């Protein structure tokens, strides 16, 4: 598994790098960004996986989210992969901004023509960690996951489906109950087919209801002035209700005045990294 | 006085000049800086004394004359560069040490000089008295003698007068007798010469008769008085006794009572010493003492009770006294002759009673403790000494005790090390010495520890015996219980905690019921007592509200809270306060879950605050080591 470095910039005392590799799950070239804190030069660091949202690439997080400074402070490596396979030449992949390219939804698709390449769930949970652990100074036991919007959905789903694998989880304006919102319904029917029971495996709200495993501690920030919140795409109340019922610890913060953008993410990134550090550095 | 004698004597005087003389005997001048001008090829010793200053007892600053045969490279004429005072690093500390020693010696000397003065005065007085006494004595004797002389002289005068009178009287009667004889004779002669014979015959016979009668009279020719004078024995026996008494041992002179020796007193006793500065013989001493009363009464009829002790030695321990009380003492010496005048009155003071530590008002954190106590004495004391010693892990007390002296008020903030246990006690100190130790308080520096400020509690809030659980009962309190106390919370059923005023990190936990509505956080001491916690800028708190459908949580400051949802209700809440960073964080301790952090700038010291918004209970747990996640 050869990695090619695409770029490297010194940042916050460490290095913000971008690599490219040939992915076996996705069967195409994939780029991902890696932030290496100063501590990585001398020792092993835990890894935070950041999953971006609809239309994003590996660039959005590293240029807009402001994660490098807190990562350097807490000595955490941040890996930010792309949001879907690229250049697979699948018909219809570029027709919609919320389905296909840039909208992988972190599932392993079962429907044609998506099922060959659109295996973002396995990529994120299997292939990428192996790759990272083999090529960087990491502490393989200490991984955590976070994301925004679709990436938030991905983070929650990965954490709930893999009890104990991720030491911490957090999300920014996540899609909490995709089965009940337009985005989710569109994506799931395209990737997974019309049988709704297959959708449950990728719905955080449903997964929470049947979660059993090590205790989680979920931090969710949501902008109150988020247009998608009011458009009922995100549905955090559903998740909160289930978590309250099932006693899954969640702290959900509704931030007044904030929208869905990376300006919102930037504002609370430090809090989230501190949240992850508590578990990754414990 | 030869300076050489002082040097090394008990007074240990600075003997700069002595040094000077010593060394400059070898050199030829008395100047402090001896310059040798002739350099070239000298074989004789170059004696140069480079003295900045010299003190008797410190060798490092005492420069021996050195041999400088070759000129010094820098061309300095003293040839003594290597001994440059300022090159030595240790010199400065030496200087400080010497200075301190000198200061102590000066203080000693001053007090010694003071005592000497007193002694001189008393001796002068004593000798003055003796002189006076002597003068008087001899004056008395002289007076008596002259009195006797006068008496005797007057006696003699009298006698003389008496005798002279007697003789004179005799003389007169003799004269009279002679005159009478003369008359008769003249009469007789006249008769004899008379021509008239008849007349002659008539008168001759009676005249002869009267002459015959007269001749028969015996004239007494003996002196009526003796010529010698009476010289009775002078009765000078009393003069003799007076003279004798001059040689008798006089009554003693006044003794000199010593000032109070440090550490010689206890709470109820005083050790008093005195001395006699004369060669008087003394049979016994009597020591008088009476307490010095605080209030000087207008009339002197109410003076304090005077007591007296008879002792043979020149010291005495007076017992049964009150602690921290001043006593006036004086002493007289008595021998067979009489009692000396009283010595000067000395003021002694007994040692104070030990203070009483106010356990519920002591607070601590990981690196300090604030101890408060009551004086334990009705009258003021001079200062307090706080003593602390560490307890080892095996529960043995360290033998090392650290003391903090000259604490002026009844509280002390002590710097400590974290993760240890200390035993702390306090003593009260006055001129008499330190009191016994107060009862010991154990302070543990594992975490922040505090009691509640029960004075601030709302009347409806009752606090348990141990001081850590509070209850808001269902019962209605009568209006009378709602006091007009400015310090208690009047609307919010709240109470403040007594956090140690140290601007570091503090952590405590609060245990709550699932069903109680509460506010937990921090507030300034002067937060408004008639407003709710979190409503103003003077307090920050986490608030739990119970609605029919769910639990609601707010993090209030100045009436504003962020909007958040918490899915698992915390039953044990950790509160972490960091003054430096200006943060106040809340955690669900059971889940180790962070709930919220306030960013604030604390302008003053902050107190934990707790309130119950509906009947229920709440328990404070402190003295806990803060978990790692509390202060990331």
Automatic annotation (TrEMBL), chain A:
GO molecular function annotations of the record: carboxylic ester hydrolase activity; S-formylglutathione hydrolase activity
Q: Could you tell me the superkingdom of the organism this chain comes from?
A: Eukaryota
Q: Does the keyword Hydrolase apply?
A: yes
Q: Which GO terms describe its cellular component?
A: cytosol
Q: Which InterPro entries match?
A: AB_hydrolase_fold, Esterase-like, S-formylglutathione_hydrol
Q: What is its EC number?
A: 3.1.2.12
- Which reactions are catalysed by this chain? S-formylglutathione + H2O = formate + glutathione + H(+)
- What subcellular locations does the record give? Cytoplasm
- Supply the Pfam families for this chain: Esterase
Active site annotated at which positions? Answer: 149, 226, 260
Look up keyword ATP-binding and say if it applies: no
UniProt KW keywords: Cytoplasm, Hydrolase, Serine esterase
Q: Which GO terms describe its biological process?
A: formaldehyde catabolic process
Primary place of residence?
cytoplasm
Among SUPFAM superfamilies, the record links this protein to: alpha/beta-Hydrolases
Purpose: Serine hydrolase involved in the detoxification of formaldehyde.
What does the similarity note say?
A: Belongs to the esterase D family.
- This protein is called S-formylglutathione hydrolase
TrEMBL record, chain B:
One Pfam short name? SPRY
Q: What keywords is this UniProt entry annotated with?
A: Coiled coil
Domain Fibronectin type-III positions: 255-354, 355-448
Key word Coiled coil present in the record? yes
Identify the InterPro entries for this entry: B30.2/SPRY, B30.2/SPRY_sf, Butyrophylin_SPRY, ConA-like_dom_sf, E3_ligase_FN3/SPRY, FN3_dom, FN3_sf, Ig-like_fold
Q: Which Gene3D superfamilies match?
A: 2.60.120.920, Immunoglobulins
Which parts pass through the membrane?
none
Domain (B30.2/SPRY) spans: 430-629
Record's compositionally biased regions (Polar residues): 26-37
Q: Which SMART domains does the protein's record reference?
A: FN3, SPRY
Q: Where is this region: Disordered?
A: 19-44, 69-90
Q: Which CDD domains match?
A: FN3
Protein name (Swiss-Prot/TrEMBL): Fibronectin type III and SPRY domain containing 2
Q: Organism source for this protein? A: Labrus bergylta (ballan wrasse)
């Amino acid at each position: 598994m050869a990695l090619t470095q695409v770029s490297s910039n010194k940042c916050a005392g460490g290095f913000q790098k971008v690599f490219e590799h040939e992915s076996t799950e996705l069967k195409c070239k994939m780029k991902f960004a890696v932030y290496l804190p100063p501590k990585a030069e001398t020792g092993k660091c835990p890894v935070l996986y950041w999953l971006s949202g609809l239309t994003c690439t590996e660039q959005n997080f590293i240029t807009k989210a402001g994660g490098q400074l807190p990562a350097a402070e807490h000595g955490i490596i941040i890996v930010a992969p792309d949001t879907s396979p690229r250049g697979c030449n699948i018909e219809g992949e570029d027709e919609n901004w919320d389905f296909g390219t840039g909208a992988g939804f972190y599932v392993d698709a079962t429907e044609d023509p998506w099922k060959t390449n659109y295996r973002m769930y396995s990529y994120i949970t299997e292939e990428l960690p192996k790759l990272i652990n083999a090529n960087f100074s990491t502490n393989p036991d200490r991984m955590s996951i976070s994301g925004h919007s679709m990436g938030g959905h991905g983070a929650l789903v990965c954490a709930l489906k893999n009890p104990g694998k991720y030491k911490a989880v957090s999300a920014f304006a996540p899609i909490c109950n995709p089965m009940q919102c337009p985005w989710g319904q569109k994506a799931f029917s395209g990737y997974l087919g019309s049988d709704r029971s297959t959708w449950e495996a990728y719905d955080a709200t449903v997964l929470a209801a049947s979660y059993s495993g090590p205790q989680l501690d979920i931090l969710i920030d949501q902008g109150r002035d988020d247009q998608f919140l009011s458009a009922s795409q995100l549905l955090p109340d559903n998740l909160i209700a289930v978590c309250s019922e099932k006693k899954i610890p969640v702290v959900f913060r509704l931030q007044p005045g904030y929208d869905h953008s990376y300006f919102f993410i930037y504002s609370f990134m430090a809090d989230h990294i501190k949240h992850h550090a508590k578990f990754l550095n414990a | 006085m030869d300076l050489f004698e002082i040097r090394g004597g008990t007074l240990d005087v600075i003997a700069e000049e002595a040094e000077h003389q010593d060394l400059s005997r070898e050199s030829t001048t008395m100047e402090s800086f001896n310059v040798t001008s002739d350099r070239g090829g000298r074989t004789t010793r170059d004696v140069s004394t480079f003295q900045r200053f010299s003190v008797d007892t410190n060798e490092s600053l005492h420069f021996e004359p050195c041999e400088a045969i070759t000129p010094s490279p820098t061309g300095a004429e003293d040839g003594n560069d290597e001994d440059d005072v300022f090159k030595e690093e240790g010199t400065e500390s030496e200087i400080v040490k010497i200075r301190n020693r000198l200061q102590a010696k000066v203080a000693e000397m001053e007090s010694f000089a003071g005592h000497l003065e007193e002694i001189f005065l008393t001796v002068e007085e004593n000798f003055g008295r003796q002189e006076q006494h002597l003068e008087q004595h001899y004056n008395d004797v002289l007076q008596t003698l002259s009195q006797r002389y006068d008496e005797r002289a007057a006696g003699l005068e009298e006698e003389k007068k008496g005798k002279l009178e007697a003789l004179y009287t005799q003389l007169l009667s003799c004269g009279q007798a002679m005159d009478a004889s003369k008359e008769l004779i003249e009469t007789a002669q006249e008769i004899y010469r008379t021509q008239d014979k008849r007349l002659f015959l008539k008168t001759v016979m009676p005249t002869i008769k009267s002459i015959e009668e007269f001749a028969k009279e015996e004239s007494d020719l003996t002196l009526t008085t003796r010529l010698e004078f009476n010289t009775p024995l002078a009765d000078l026996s009393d003069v003799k006794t007076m003279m004798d008494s001059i040689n008798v041992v006089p009554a003693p002179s006044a003794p000199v009572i010593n000032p109070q020796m440090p550490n010689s007193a206890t709470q109820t006793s005083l050790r008093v010493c005195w001395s006699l500065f004369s060669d008087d013989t003394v049979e016994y001493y009597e020591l008088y003492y009476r307490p010095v009363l605080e209030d000087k009464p207008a009339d002197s009829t109410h003076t304090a009770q005077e007591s007296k002790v008879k002792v043979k030695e020149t010291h005495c321990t007076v017992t049964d006294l009150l602690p921290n009380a001043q006593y006036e003492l004086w002493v007289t010496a008595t021998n067979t002759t009489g009692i000396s005048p009283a010595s000067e009155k000395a003021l002694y003071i007994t040692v104070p009673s030990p203070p009483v530590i106010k356990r519920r008002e002591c607070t601590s954190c990981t690196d300090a403790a604030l101890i408060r106590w009551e004086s334990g004495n009705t009258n003021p004391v001079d200062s307090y000494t706080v003593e602390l010693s560490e307890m080892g892990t095996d529960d043995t007390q360290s033998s090392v005790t650290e003391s903090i002296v000259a604490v002026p008020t009844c509280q002390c903030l002590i710097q400590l090390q974290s993760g240890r246990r200390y035993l702390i006690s306090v003593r009260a100190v006055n001129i008499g010495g330190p009191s016994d130790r107060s009862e010991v308080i154990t302070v543990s520096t594992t975490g922040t520890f505090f009691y509640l400020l029960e004075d601030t509690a709302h009347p409806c809030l009752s606090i348990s015996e141990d001081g850590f659980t509070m209850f808001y009962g269902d019962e209605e309190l009568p209006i009378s219980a709602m006091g007009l106390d400015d310090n208690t919370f009047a609307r919010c059923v709240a109470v403040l905690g007594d956090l140690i005023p140290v601007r570091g990190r503090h952590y405590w936990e609060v245990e709550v019921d699932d069903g109680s509505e509460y506010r937990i956080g921090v507030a300034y001491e002067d937060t408004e007592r008639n407003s709710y916690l979190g409503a103003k800028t003077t307090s920050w708190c986490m608030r739990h509200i119970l609605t029919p459908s769910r639990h609601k949580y707010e993090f209030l400051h100045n009436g504003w809270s962020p909007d958040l949802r918490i899915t698992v209700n915390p039953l044990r809440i950790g509160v972490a306060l960091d003054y430096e960073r200006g943060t106040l964080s809340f955690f669900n301790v059971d889940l180790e879950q962070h709930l919220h952090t306030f960013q604030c700038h604390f302008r003053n010291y902050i107190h934990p605050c707790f309130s119950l918004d509906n009947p229920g209970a709440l328990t404070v747990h402190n003295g806990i080591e803060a978990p790692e996640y509390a202060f990331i």
